[in-house]
Write a structure and sequence with these properties.
Number of helices: 12
Shape: elongated
InterPro entries: DarP, DarP_sf
Structural class: mainly alpha
Number of strands: 0
Radius of gyration: 30 Å
Oligomer: single chain
Distance between the termini: 27 Å
Pfam family, one: DarP
Length: 270
């Protein structure tokens, strides 16, 4: 049974509770907790920013116990108590989606709010957007990556991208190879002979295909290394992700109300 004393909500004097809604929310919360306990460590890590301090460790304890063990059920109830009133509706919705994904064995859930924020920050910093820079560097230093290291990473990535852009612009479109030209010339010279036109055309097509195949095989041996900026972009993403996780977690926590905090139904207002 739901214990109202466990909720961190503030009661309004004279306000009646919607007990049916509270029970439904409690069942939903327990379903989420059970799903979290069934997740793999990697799946659980992906939603750790949505959980209150200590909840991930508590879920890990429950996960190590047999499913039929009463101790596991008590541990899951403890996790629910930790989450009650501490996890907002937005975070609960995300946790439901993550649990559903894990139950379907569909991989690791990705928080779109986090990945979207990281991408926007990364692109803004690389573009020199002052508003984005003010936002990123405006968060508490305890949340953010080292500002000096982040600025250095941004400059290095910008420089690498500029160098690659210059190199790409300087490169001209490759001229047709001599083998292609010869094959096409054969087509022109043989087109005058109406009787052999089809055979000559087929031979020309085969010649062009063979030439392209040879050219492709020769370039594949010494395949170009991936652009330098690609690795730098990954580094920049890794540096920004912890900050995005913290920002999203704080935003979700602001809406934390937990089960039992809903106002009474319109049916009860009369």
């Amino acid at each position: 049974m739901y214990n109202f004393t466990d909720s961190k909500e503030e009661r309004v004097p004279g306000q009646r509770r919607n007990r049916g809604m509270q029970k439904k929310q409690e069942r939903n919360l327990m379903s989420i907790v059970v799903g979290l306990a069934n997740m793999s460590p990697k799946q659980l890590k992906a939603v750790s920013h949505l959980l209150p301090p200590g909840a991930v460790e508590a879920v890990g304890i429950a996960a190590r116990l047999p499913r039929s063990n009463q101790g596991r059920k008590r541990q899951e109830q403890l996790v629910a108590k930790m989450m009650r009133g501490q996890v907002g509706e937005g975070a609960l919705t995300k946790l439901e989606a993550a649990v559903a994904l894990a139950e379907d064995n569909a991989g690791v859930w990705d928080d779109g709010d986090v990945s979207g924020r990281v991408l926007a920050w990364r692109e803004g910093l690389l573009a020199g957007d002052e508003a984005v820079a003010a936002e990123v560097y405006g968060y508490p230093r305890a949340w953010a990556p080292d500002h000096q290291q982040l600025r250095s990473a941004v400059r290095a990535c910008q420089q690498a991208m500029e160098e690659e852009a210059k190199a790409s612009g300087a490169a001209t479109a490759p001229a047709a190879s001599s083998s292609d030209a010869a094959a096409l010339a054969d087509v022109g010279s043989s087109s005058n002979d109406a009787d052999d036109e089809e055979e000559e055309d087929l031979a020309a097509v085969l010649a062009v295909a063979a030439a392209r195949s040879r050219r492709g095989s020769s370039t594949s041996v010494g395949a170009a290394a991936p652009p330098k900026s690609r690795a730098m972009l990954k580094t920049l993403t890794k540096m920004l992700k912890p900050l995005a996780l913290r920002v999203v977690a704080e935003a979700d926590a602001k809406g934390a109300t937990g089960p039992g905090s809903e106002d009474e139904d319109e049916d009860e207002e009369a």
